[in-house]
Amino acid sequence: MKSFFSKFKNLLLIGAYKTLVIFEKLTNKGIALDFISKDYIDDPYKTYNSMRSHKPILFSQTTRLYWVTKMEFAQEMLRDKRFSVDDRKYPIADKRRKEFKKAGREIMLEQFENPSMLKLDPPDHSRIRKLVQYGFTNRYITSLEPEIKQIVEGCLDKVHNQDSFDLIEDLAKPLPAIVIAKMMGLPNEDLDQFQAWSEDLLVGVGGIGTSKEEIKKSGDAYEALIRYFEKIILSRKDKPSDDFIGKLIQAEEEGDKLNIKEMYGTCLLLLIAGHETTTRLIGNGILTLFNHPEQMKSIKENFELIPNAIEEMLRFEPPVHATVRFAENDMVYAEKKYKRGTPFAVSIAGANRDPDANPNPNIFDIFRKDIKHISFGYGPHMCIGASLARIESRIAFEILFERFSNMSLQNKNPEWGKNLIFRGFDNLRIHTN
Questions:
Q1: What angle do CA 42, 43, 49 make, to 5 degrees?
Q2: What is d(CA 73, CA 70) in angstroms, rounded to the nearest whole number?
Q3: Residue 378 to residue 369: CA distance in whole angstroms
Q4: What is the DSSP letter of 414?
Q5: Which of 55, 156, 349, 423 has fewest C-beta within 10 Å?
Q6: Which helix H or strand E contains 322, and what residues bound it?
Q7: CA proximity to 422, closest of 226, 280, 241, 268
Q8: pLDDT, greater one: 364 or 418
Q9: DSSP 168
Q10: Which of 390, 351, 326, 406 lies closest to 145, judged by CA?
């Protein structure tokens, strides 16, 4: 009986969603953000382009968010203090708190009240970022290059004599996970568990058609990661090691230090962000090159093209598609009134394809000059690990092309993952010859 009512409820929800899509099309001249449709999952850029052409800030009934698809507005929202990331300040916070309490998620509620710098506005964001950046100096990140090369070589050694391998499972996932774990001084034997927790957690963040079971799994993964970092940090607090967690414990600026909850949130943020972004950048980038064989050929002949190619990959097929901002107060923006707490989805993917920012934006071109993208954010929340992601992906591409110069894609139309925020693949099978 319980199963019957659950299925009946799902049918009602799907029916309500389809009604919203129809209503959205009627009010927006045939345009709707139908994020569960196959057309959208396969190619969301057509939808973003239509949204931008109709209204660069368009309200979506299906997500209850104002979607910002114009680069000028997206950049302004990401840097302007009139737009906030701290959802604790707005009516949505009460709903989140009730949900956590109802689900018995005390750990998630604690972290919601003590968020990572990703969810903080200045001056709190500035304070934590200043302390965290000690572990991300350019000098230190550059010094990791020999070790990153060894990790990539080690991943590909395991598949070198095979006729085919899974680029995601065999390289794109383990590479950033191993690097960030080494930076943090975490045990190698925990890597598989990190990956599993990371994947489970993200299903509940922007997952399309997420079930109750998946939401529970996501919450379990979140709390498991917080408990894990709590154990690690408390065990090292009296004797900080010479790694990133040790630097966090010792980090001090003008008498300020990270509190224990801020450390948990920071470690969780860096593990997930550092792992997932690079994984998707490598996977999305390789597929895009396979779809543009002449440009792949150019890269194979000249590896110096790779850094610019990576910027074009980030623009054309970004790993993260959107981020949320709130109106700090009642305001007028782009000649329209918005109430305090109005949520905006800043469409990274939409802004990257804005023709006012990049000429011929729907054409992939590794020779493109003056590439403009916000795939690592913009303004004060610019991704602190951007240089690490660039180095990891550059080395991965170099060694892949050195070892498998004749590699080909096994499935010409691989299935994109179903996530509104993070875009990428669960699997990408490659023939080595």
A1: 160
A2: 6
A3: 19
A4: P
A5: 55
A6: strand 322-327
A7: 280
A8: 364
A9: I
A10: 390
Polymer length of the chain: 433
Cα–Cα distance for residue pair 133/366, rounded to 1 Å? 31
Among residues 205, 170, 201, the alpha carbon closest in space to that of 324 is found at 205
Q: Rounded CA gap, 308 and 222, in Å?
A: 35
Tokens of 342: 């109005």
Give helix 386-403 / helix 293-301 axis angle, nearest 10°.
Answer: 90
Mean pLDDT check: name the lowest of 44-53, 218-227, 288-297, 304-313: 218-227
Tell me: the pLDDT tens digits for 339-357? 999 999 999 999 999 999 9
Residue of 282, 303, 327, 304 whose CA lies nearest to 121:
327
Task: Identify the sign of the CA torsion 242, 244, 246, 250.
Answer: positive
For residue 282, name the pLDDT band (cuts at 50, 70, 90): very high
Task: Please write the tens of the pLDDT for every residue from 139-155.
Answer: 888 999 999 999 999 99
Task: Kindly list the structural domains of the chain, giving each domain's residue range(s) and its CATH number in brackets, ordered by start.
Answer: 64-431 (1.10.630.10)
pTM for this entry: 0.92
**Bigger pLDDT: 4 vs 51:** 51
CA end-to-end distance (rounded Å), the chain: 54
DSSP 278-321: HHHHHHHHHHHHHTSHHHHHHHHH-GGGHHHHHHHHHHHS-SB-
Of 73, 72, 61, 83, residue with least CA distance to 325: 83
Radius of gyration of the chain (CA): 22
From CA 56, how far away is CA 49, in angstroms rounded?
A: 9
Structure tokens at 26: 């009627």
- Between CA 103 and CA 293 the distance in angstroms is 50
Q: In sequence order, which residues have a C-beta less than 8 Å from that of residue 179 and are 6 or more positions away? A: 144, 147, 148, 151, 274, 388, 392
Among 147-161, 235-249, 293-307, 345-359, which is the least confidently predicted range? 235-249
| Spatial distance between the Cα atoms of 54 and 29, rounded to a whole number of angstroms | 8
Q: Are 62 and 345 a contacting pair, CB within 8 Å?
A: no
Q: Is the peptide bond before 240 cis (omega within 30 degrees of 0)?
A: no
